[in-house]
Specification:
The chain has one helix and 13 strands. By secondary structure, it is mainly β. The chain folds into two domains: 58 residues; 90 residues, Immunoglobulin-like (Sandwich).
């Protein structure tokens, strides 16, 4: 077993394993050219290669990733994470995957979508969202379902937490599709 105090006088470890604990199963070594290995309990837990890539083995205990992570702690590219390994991590709290549906994200943002059938030329229709926005509807993006060429004018002047109004002034009857975002 090599101790740091025994090698300190040489100023060069030359790939020698540096034992860190009393029972000899936790160590640091660079026995592979330009790659650093950290062993804990006798097995590699961290490996740092010359490109700066770090390989970490093991698992994170439940609840260990809480609070905010400062962006200053994250430099460079983060490794890819397989979605199959992420269990119990939800990005939304509610989902209605219908033709007229919505998703409520963990941060309170709500995205809704849907449409209405035929709206006569010169007519207006009030389209009710699948879910009323609790605080505000920030934006509604809507388009007509017309499949003809030409100039089509339309208006969506009235928006509330529960609905919006679509005015068709395009010259033909047509449907409307929308996406709305709010909280």
């Amino acid at each position: 077993m090599t101790r740091a105090r025994d090698l300190a006088r040489y100023n060069d470890f030359s790939g020698t394993e540096l034992i860190l604990d009393a029972d000899g199963d936790t160590s640091i070594t660079a026995d592979t050219d330009d790659t650093i290995h950290v062993k804990i309990a006798g097995s590699d837990k961290f490996t740092l290669d010359p490109s700066g890539n770090m390989t970490i083995s093991g698992t994170l205990p439940a609840g260990s990733l809480t609070g905010n992570v400062s962006s200053s702690l994250l430099s460079g590219a983060l490794p890819a994470i397989s979605g199959a390994s992420l269990t119990g991590v939800a990005i939304h709290t509610a989902l209605s995957a219908a033709a007229e549906g919505y998703v409520t994200l963990n941060n309170g943002v709500i995205i809704q979508w849907g449409g209405a059938g035929s709206v006569a030329n010169g007519g207006a229709t009030t389209i009710t969202f699948p879910l009323s926005f609790p605080t505000a509807c920030w934006k509604v993006v809507a388009c007509w379902t017309v499949n003809t060429s030409g100039t089509h004018h339309s208006a969506f002047p009235t928006t509330s937490q529960a609905n919006f109004t679509a005015h068709n002034v395009s010259g033909a009857s047509q449907g409307v599709m929308y996406m709305a975002v709010g909280n």
